[in-house]
Amino acid sequence: MAPVSLPPGFRFHPTDEELVAYYLKRKINGRKIDLEIIPEVDLYKCEPWDLPGNFFISSSAP
């Protein structure tokens, strides 16, 4: 997955309701999410220690 460039100040902090009502519902229905902020990963093809380096979106947030 190519790195995503996010504008300064962007934070991904959805509520539980937003995660279920928007992201999970769209995923279950096979609909594309406009911003690929949550990568889809086949965990059976990755070593646990490789995940942060391969699937991390850089941020200046603490």
TrEMBL record:
List the protein's name: Putative transcription factor NAM family
Report the residue ranges that make up the NAC domain in this protein. 6-62
Question: Coiled-coil intervals in this record?
Answer: none
Which Pfam families does the protein's record reference?
Answer: NAM (PF02365)
Record organism: Lupinus albus (White lupine)
Example GO biological process: regulation of DNA-templated transcription
GO MF: DNA binding
The alphabetical list of record keywords is:
DNA-binding, Nucleus, Transcription, Transcription regulation
